[in-house]
Amino acid sequence: MKEHSSQLLADDFVFLEAPRWHAGRLWVPDVFDSILYSLDADGRRSVVYAGLPPRPNSIGFLPDGTLLIVSSVARHLVRLVGGRLERHADLSQHATGDLNDFVVDESGCVYVGNFGYDLFAGAPLAPTAIHRVDPDGTVSIAASGLEFPNGAVITRNGRKLIVAETWAGRLSAFDRDTAGRLANRRIYAELGQRQPDGLCIDAEDGVWVSSFSTGEVIRVLHGGRITDRVAFPGSAVACQLGGADGHTLFCTTYDGTIADQQKKLRRGAVHTLRVEVPRA
Question: Could you list the residue range(s) of the whole structural domain that residue 90 is in?
Answer without folding.
Answer: 2-274
